[in-house]
Design goal:
single chain; alpha+beta; HIT family, subunit A; 2 domains; five-stranded antiparallel sheet; 5 helices; 16% strand; globular
């Protein structure tokens, strides 16, 4: 993790940033190393090195950061959804010693895409679960109908 707090320099206006929101408790700006078409960092003005360093007194501040994320999502037109990510320490990817939230959106995430299964794959799974290995054609549960009919049934 960087020892130098770049975010404090952005708060103090020593380093330029594309600021999209600012109030007395936090600041939000576009990430220069964007991981998605919409990638905004939301940071508190109070220096809190990591998520582990939060205390009971920070509860209202953390709630405020979440409400700012909601405002920004609406302002940026993220009606299809968005992600909020908080990394804690280097092992999780935190590179700046200042608590921050990533607001990410408008990119098809890999997880939903990975869950898509073709109709043929569905049929193969269905058939493998029901056919004895010695019967390469026909589906016992479909009373011997052609696999295309079975596939049509499974794809509904």
């Amino acid at each position: 993790m960087l020892k130098e707090n770049l975010f404090q320099k952005i708060i103090d206006k020593q380093i330029p940033a594309k600021i999209v929101y600012e109030d007395d408790r936090c600041l939000a700006f576009r990430d220069i190393n964007a991981q998605a078409p919409t990638h905004v960092l939301i940071i508190p003005r109070k220096v809190i090195p990591t998520h582990d360093d939060l205390t009971e007194e920070d509860a209202a501040l953390v709630g405020h950061l979440h409400l700012v994320a909601v405002k920004l999502a609406r302002q940026l037109g993220l009606s299809d959804g968005y992600r909020l990510v908080v990394n804690c320490r280097e092992g999780a990817g935190q590179t700046v010693p200042h608590l921050h939230m990533h607001l990410l959106a408008t990119r098809p995430w890999l997880a939903p895409r990975a869950r898509r299964v073709s109709a043929l794959t569905k049929w193969r799974r269905h058939a493998a679960a029901r056919w004895p290995r010695s019967l390469p054609s026909g589906c016992l549960t479909c009373a011997g109908l052609q696999w295309a009919l079975c596939l049509k049934k499974l794809s509904r």
